[in-house]
Amino acid sequence: MRVIVLGADGYLGWPTALHLSTMGHDVIAADNLIRRRWDTLCGTHSLVPIAGMKRRVLRWKEVSGKQIAWERLDLMSLADTTALIAQYQPDAVVHFAEQRSAPYSMISGAHAAETQVNNVIGTLNLLFALRESGPDCHLVKLGTMGEYGTPNIDIEEGFIEIEHNGRKDRLPYPKQASSFYHLSKVHDSNNIMFTCRAWGLRATDLNQGVVYGSGTPETDLHSELRTRFDYDDIWGTALNRFCAQAAHGHPLTVYGSGGQTRGFLDIRDTVRCVELAILNPPDRGEFRVFNQFTEQFSVNQLADRVRAARLAHGLETVIEHLANPRIEMEAHYYNAKHQHLLDLGLVPHSLEDSLIDRVIGMVERYKGRIKPELFLPRVDWRFGGGGKMPAPSKRRRVPALRSVSSLY
Amino acid sequence: MRVIVLGADGYLGWPTALHLSTMGHDVIAADNLIRRRWDTLCGTHSLVPIAGMKRRVLRWKEVSGKQIAWERLDLMSLADTTALIAQYQPDAVVHFAEQRSAPYSMISGAHAAETQVNNVIGTLNLLFALRESGPDCHLVKLGTMGEYGTPNIDIEEGFIEIEHNGRKDRLPYPKQASSFYHLSKVHDSNNIMFTCRAWGLRATDLNQGVVYGSGTPETDLHSELRTRFDYDDIWGTALNRFCAQAAHGHPLTVYGSGGQTRGFLDIRDTVRCVELAILNPPDRGEFRVFNQFTEQFSVNQLADRVRAARLAHGLETVIEHLANPRIEMEAHYYNAKHQHLLDLGLVPHSLEDSLIDRVIGMVERYKGRIKPELFLPRVDWRFGGGGKMPAPSKRRRVPALRSVSSLY
Fold this sequence. Notes:
The structure is a homodimer of 408-residue chains.
Chain A: E1 2-6, H1 13-22, E2 26-31, H2 34-42, H3 53-64, E3 68-72, H4 78-88, E4 92-95, H5 102-105, H6 109-133, E5 138-144, E6 159-164, E7 167-172, H7 180-199, E8 202-208, E9 210-212, H8 238-248, E10 252-255, E11 261-266, H9 267-279, E12 287-292, E13 295-298, H10 299-311, E14 319-322, H11 340-343, H12 353-365
Parallel strand pairs in A: 1-2, 1-4, 2-3, 4-5, 5-8, 8-12, 9-11, 10-14
Antiparallel strand pairs in A: 6-7, 11-13
Helix pairs in contact in A: 1-9, 4-6, 6-7, 8-10, 8-12, 10-12
């Protein structure tokens, strides 16, 4: 199949492009490279040095004999996006190309607006591009389990049968997202669902859990094929950050009491889930949702797993509970379904001590690059990032968004 | 109470400002006047000539002895919005300031993006402005009944108790909006709900039905106090457009079979509902939803009501069924609750033949201004407004939205 991977410069986009290429698909990797710019703006960086996209694609050709096309593309341009779809006529588009940090979206009003404009309008442009140039193409969109929040009932995969006052309907599962980032994905889901109904597009919304792991078999083949690894408060996610903290001898920073429970998965399963979705497309007009995670853990359980893995090597790890900078329940019911991808053949990697060892081992190789001040949360959900955190770079006034004036 | 009315230049914003002023509130009217610009761009116009905002406010002072402050404001500017809230310290902000046409939002990708950016980011900026400068202020936000779509179960007011696999929760009512405009209001609702939880803001989402009527007692006081009246395919809503068509001797244009059922209300009830919400604010941290309509009608029932009102004067009216340019069910279950505003004391105007007569009478005074070509739908939900409609003004390339680059 011919597949465009949007957001191919990211932590998951790049390994996905490599995996699909390995599996014999014809892959086009596209990105606007803004993630590297956001690193500069946030004073953050990938712990693992990463090559540029041109270099990566060349190295991949050399190592695997396979060609990945590289296209610099900004989804904010409807014209460029439409042209890309028209040029390649892909069977599927995998859409990772979003601002994907909840803390980033909570820094200020400008960051919230940037996140929602980038994600919602980028996706909207992609939908119009598909209507125009690729109506049969399968959109595989990365959503997040965070769209659901933590309801007191089982979380279904996208839809729920509701019986109410003697009548029944199958309706979109209610969403209760808890950051402007997570909300942007809710907005996307609603926009995509509508275009499947209105235009007959076909889409799979992959509501993904928190991903952990330092790479895949393909990214391990060469130093220039490695994917980024984030350990900081803005871009680093729970388990990866804990592994980095453990390797550095820093306490594991649990937010609040640590009873927050979420779905997690290994990065090697992410790339396989995406391929499973591509190999089994929905019908025209169908909008389907897969909950893409393999195991549920509370934050405390994760921290304990990391501590136990260290203890097996005779190493002590301190777990520290910080005041929770987020707005979230710290003790709650959580039971989320994730059957669809298993039904399509996913054989999950479960979280093993050996994986934790491997991640910590990788971090240890780059220990000298760690800036421990980036371990601590700088963004508070209540107040933003304003006076509450060090400004890692010069503050600059964000220009106000202007309306698009438009004629028809 | 001190109340800022955002979108005070619009069909409903202006009468609301006048009504609140009449009731003794201290009113600040704000608008960026973009609605008048959109008219130019769409080749549309208010059937009733309307005065400029400065003129209106002066005339109101003269007629009523009451002062309404006028502020030109674009919600796209977070700084200006924050400054406005800080300056006036309002008890309530009534937010009508959105692009409010479903067909407009469906013209093209650029129009969809403009609608969602204008509405979602405008509201987001307002939420940040309230957090910063008016955390106790009550946000009264105009939503739409169209957020719910047409589910096969009763529509509740914003939330629904769901029992599922032996557990229960009260969750946001599932939304199934059917245009990028309606979706923008769903996005708004989700963003607002989150900030009530995260920041302790207080908000009322008024999910309003389709409004009909040519004015209120206040707008009838002087020709320079009149509010706009839209009869065209882009801005005109069902009953108002039917009245204009009847007055002009044009067939009433029903889209599809006409079984589409919606909630409707008289413009005189809109202004009272808004005041009832203001007088009865929610608690800090509360996000509540009122379904703001008084009666349900199918489009066929509305057309029949207009025909009957004409027949009482011996006039024949033709009803014409056009191919439906929208994506919507034309026969469906529809039972939407609307108890909250009645509980607060709303005494609804029901739709009477005399009201239809009054609207038609008003249209007849301005019959010479009608452009009948604007009665027919130019925007198709499947294909947009592209080649399917006459271009009322020179086509211009819409500049692509750029990401907001931002530091912290």
